[in-house]
Amino acid sequence: MMGRGPSVALQRPERLWRRTVAGVPYLWLLVFFLAPFAIVLRISFADPLIGQPPFTPLYDEAQGIQLTADNYRFLTEDDLYWVSYLKSMRIAAVATLLCLLIGYPMAYGIARARAVWRNVLLLLVILPFWTSFLLRVYAWMGMLSGQGVVNKALLALGLVDQPVQILYTDLAVYLGIVYTYLPFMILPLYATLERLDGELLDAAADLGGRPRQAFLDITLPLSAPGVVAGSMLVFIPALGEFVIPSLLGGLDTLMIGRTLYDEFFVNRDWPLASAVASVLVLILVLPIVVFQRFSQLDREAAR
Amino acid sequence: MRRDGRSPTFLFSCLCFGFAFLYVPILVMIVYSFNDSRLVSVWTGFSLRWYGALWENEQIIDAALLSLRIAFVSATLATALGTLAALAITRMGRFRGRALFSGMLAAPLVMPEVITGLSLLMLFVSLEGAIGWPLGRGADTITIAHITFSMAYVAVVVQARLTAMDRALEEAAMDLGCRPMGVTFDIILPLIAPAMLSGWLLAFTLSLDDLVIASFVSGPESSTLPMVIYSKVRLGITPDVNALAAVIVAIVGIGVAVAGWLMARMARTAA
Lengths: 303, 271
Known about the structure:
Chain A has 303 residues and is an all-alpha fold.
């Protein structure tokens, strides 16, 4: 588009400038984002080795190209990995649904609030995001512990006779994920709900549509791009979450991010960790493509 | 205003519940940072001792300084690269490999940290084996990793501004014979400066906050603040971390207020 302006041949510095604008970030992403994936994929087909680096070379002068599918075979044989993948998907899916249930009415309330209030409320949604993620997870360790605020409240209300174990259970992991990812659900939902044309709802009311019907027939379908974008923004990172299950979860809260981390740092099995990562990327490809398609549609709708 | 099935009371109670959910844990954490007791959840009296303990903890101070240095450098470079990327996507029309480029630019936004961390470490190890760089791992490798994921966030913020912007000025300048490079520096950059500032702040915060990626690509000598905090809280609750949290919340609060004021002023002068 820019080149079409003055159609005279671009001078040398101009051409150089155009190349720099696209080329520098392009090259950076190729080297530091795409190439690393290729390397992980490559190492996932190597054998572990004691040494530096701790895996067998892919190409050997004597034996030629060496590929082994042992790591992938091991992933299917050991229950640990199946359980981790499935449990991560379940936890991420349920947490995403909970975020949607809490986030939708909040986003709707903000979008319908008076203009003066709207920005204040939005800022209040974003503000926790600027404070440390790790410390917000830590805050829940204090809230949920045996003598924590939650247990004190439950005891005071007479709901329980003695402190209940919440910290280091799956329930704490759900709470932690919903808590830290809620803003990611609210913001895209707010963006679509705020654009919603009020006149459509007026028309529905004029034509005798009941408010409930108007919400189900107009508001909800029109906010679908926001629902999908928000859900993906919660589901995808939650699936690979490491900090929350390792600080709030119990020993049996196996999530794949944590299993991968332990495989790498505790067992020091680089090829196996690479295989775990490759399978995780494969699982994530579909939701990531869906996310991109919808955020593109959403950007076009915003224009 | 209330044209559909959500009554104002229902929405209002949802908002109250939601904001309570978001803020009560942070407030409780701050309140207990003033607790005299070593047992975090038993209140024995008001005290500032944990703030004193924090001030004398050299490990935490050193880690905080390292984190700030990495965050400053990586946010600055990520803003430069992210802005270039946003310009390429919105102002360069079609070019070869554009689809791959926009895909690579968006993927870090949702990529789980364990994968980004692991794959960057594998890259650094392979590069060291092949060309002898980077020699070992430390602040430099953490900085490169942080630039890579935070430039995507900067690009999103700047791109939003570039698409929303009125093109009339740029077109007028071009009709008057201004070259693309001149248009970028004299017209586009001043207009997107507020977006670049919010992108920089976002990149800075993301870098300060990162635990997982830094754990993968750091060396034995370089522990960032989140790494030190994690190794402390993994074993349970400790009151000096509460004090640290309170300090961070205070700094963020002041920072957001100052940034909001600055951006409002910049928007006023730009208008």
